[in-house]
């Protein structure tokens, strides 16, 4: 009965160690790295084996019976890694020498070394076996207990006949039973830890999902606000369009009707004047319709760019002819200059380049009451990373009303203006800059802007000349 009592005492001690280890794990190393957790497990298993030996049954002055091999069994099932099990076997075996270096101590040390190697071999089987954890545990417990008994007999510290007749009939079944009991307890601890980790992981996932949902909600609210604002801008745009379309249409209808009904009463000069107004109103109407159609083509990706030779040297004369009258009527200085190193010909879409420049100059004249409007054509070099681009730059500068800094970005958006009342005050659709910006991108360039409120603006059209790819 002495063996049985000490085995039960060993089991109680190991359970206490396992419980304390569980508390330490929860409150100290539960969030540590995997390496620290494995190292902690090795240290704990070796300590459990040592304390089992400390409270073991002293058969005589040198021979101790205990359950120091049980931590190896648990480790084989919990951490089936060969190097881990060999370290536990070696460490537990060396702790036997702390109770005195004797023949029995050396035999006990060798026994644990051998059991460590056996458990390392079993770990390969555990990782690859399709059996459930219970069956795996029973097989590991049986093999380790059987090998422990064989080692005791083979190492010869106790006479084989005495061990088989008097000791083994009690210690072997007791060792099996207590190993199973302790393994079940440890398994329950392990399942508890696993459940806690799963709950913690689930909480982290829920927290991450909640945060993601919150972000998505904010994004949806932002998009809803943007859609609402876009809808509002389009509604205001349509309201302005009705005014912009009615004005030239009314002029055309009223004057043509006047000419029709009073043809005999009107002088030739009056008819020519009315015809000029009708022609001008028709041009305005055509320009509005063209802007709307161009915008719809850009948004649909169906606006064609025709790249051909563009005569840069002709641009100053063409634009001077188009805007000279406007400059004279408004009393503004209109200057066009071009650097000498500007190439006379470039490869681009002449119609779209002129359309962009007309839009930029029209805006400059529209929003400038006094002072000047100028166009300067020059070459500029700039780049991003290793690609260097040479640009042909058209700077349209004015001394007009300018634009507040917080409104710089929005003026390039369709259906938006820096001041939504300007479409009524100055006329126009408000689509010119948006279309020009899109056209510039399609031509491989871009439009930049510098502006200060009440201090004028400068819009620059950049068109690529060449790209050095090496």
Architecture overview:
This protein has 470 residues and is an alpha+beta fold. Helices cover 65% and strands 13% of the residues. The protein has 12 helices and 9 strands. The strands form 3 sheets. Strands 4-6-7-9-8 form a 5-stranded mixed sheet. Helix 1 (2-29) runs parallel beside helix 7, helix 2 (34-54) runs parallel beside helix 4 (82-95) and helix 9 runs parallel beside helix 10. The longest helix is centred in the middle third of the chain and has 102 residues, at 160-261.
Task: Map the helices and strands.
Layout: H1 2-29, H2 34-54, E1 57-58, E2 64-65, H3 70-78, H4 82-95, H5 103-128, H6 133-155, H7 160-261, H8 268-300, E3 308-311, H9 315-330, E4 333-338, E5 345-348, H10 350-366, E6 372-384, E7 387-398, H11 422-426, H12 432-442, E8 446-451, E9 457-468
Parallel strand pairs: 4-6
Antiparallel strand pairs: 1-2, 3-5, 6-7, 7-9, 8-9
Helix pairs in contact: 1-2, 1-7, 2-3, 2-4, 3-4, 3-5, 3-6, 3-7, 4-5, 5-6, 6-7, 7-8, 8-12, 9-10, 10-12
């Amino acid at each position: 009965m002495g063996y049985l009592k000490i085995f039960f005492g060993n089991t109680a001690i190991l359970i206490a160690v396992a419980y304390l280890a569980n508390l330490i794990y929860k409150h100290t190393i539960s969030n540590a790295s995997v390496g620290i957790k494995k190292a902690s497990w090795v240290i704990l298993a070796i300590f459990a084996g040592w304390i089992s030996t400390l409270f073991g049954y002293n058969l005589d002055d040198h021979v101790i019976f205990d359950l120091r091999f049980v931590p190896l069994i648990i480790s084989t099932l919990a951490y089936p890694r060969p190097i881990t099990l060999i370290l536990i076997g070696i460490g537990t075996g060396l702790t036997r020498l702390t109770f005195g270096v004797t023949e029995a101590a050396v035999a006990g040390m060798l026994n644990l070394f051998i059991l460590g190697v056996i458990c390392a071999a079993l770990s390969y089987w555990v990782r690859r076996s399709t059996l459930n954890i219970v069956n795996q545990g029973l097989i590991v417990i049986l093999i380790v207990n059987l090998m422990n008994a064989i080692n005791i007999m083979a190492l010869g510290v106790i006479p084989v006949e005495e061990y088989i007749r008097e000791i083994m009939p009690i210690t072997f079944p007791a060792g099996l039973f207590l190993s199973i009991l302790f393994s079940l307890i440890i398994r329950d601890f392990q399942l508890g830890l696993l459940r806690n980790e799963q709950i913690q992981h689930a909480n982290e996932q829920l927290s991450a999902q909640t945060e993601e949902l919150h972000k998505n909600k904010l994004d949806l609210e932002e998009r809803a606000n943007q859609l609402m604002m876009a809808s509002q801008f389009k509604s205001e745009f349509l309201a302005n369009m009705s005014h912009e379309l009615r004005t030239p249409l009314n002029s055309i209808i009223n004057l043509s009707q006047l000419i029709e009904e009073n043809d005999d009463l009107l002088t030739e000069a009056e008819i020519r004047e009315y015809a000029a107004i009708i022609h001008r109103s028709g041009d305005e109407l055509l320009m509005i319709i063209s802007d709307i159609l161009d915008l719809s083509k850009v948004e649909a990706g169906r606006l064609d760019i025709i790249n051909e030779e563009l005569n840069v040297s002709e641009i100053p004369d063409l634009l001077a002819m188009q805007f000279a009258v406007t400059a004279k009527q408004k009393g503004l200085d209109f200057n066009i200059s071009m650097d000498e190193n500007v190439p006379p010909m470039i490869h681009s879409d002449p119609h779209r380049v002129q359309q962009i420049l007309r839009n930029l100059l029209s805006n400059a004249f529209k929003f400038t009451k006094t002072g000047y409007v100028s166009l300067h054509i020059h070459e500029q070099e700039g780049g991003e990373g290793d690609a260097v681009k040479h640009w042909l730059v058209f700077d349209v500068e004015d001394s007009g009303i300018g634009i507040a800094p917080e409104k710089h970005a929005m003026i390039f958006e369709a259906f938006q203006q820096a001041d939504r009342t300007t479409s009524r005050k100055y006329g126009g659709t408000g689509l010119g800059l948006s279309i020009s910006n899109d056209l510039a991108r399609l031509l491989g360039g871009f439009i930049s802007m510098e502006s200060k409120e009440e201090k004028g603006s400068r819009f620059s059209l950049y068109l690529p000349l060449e790209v050095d790819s090496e």
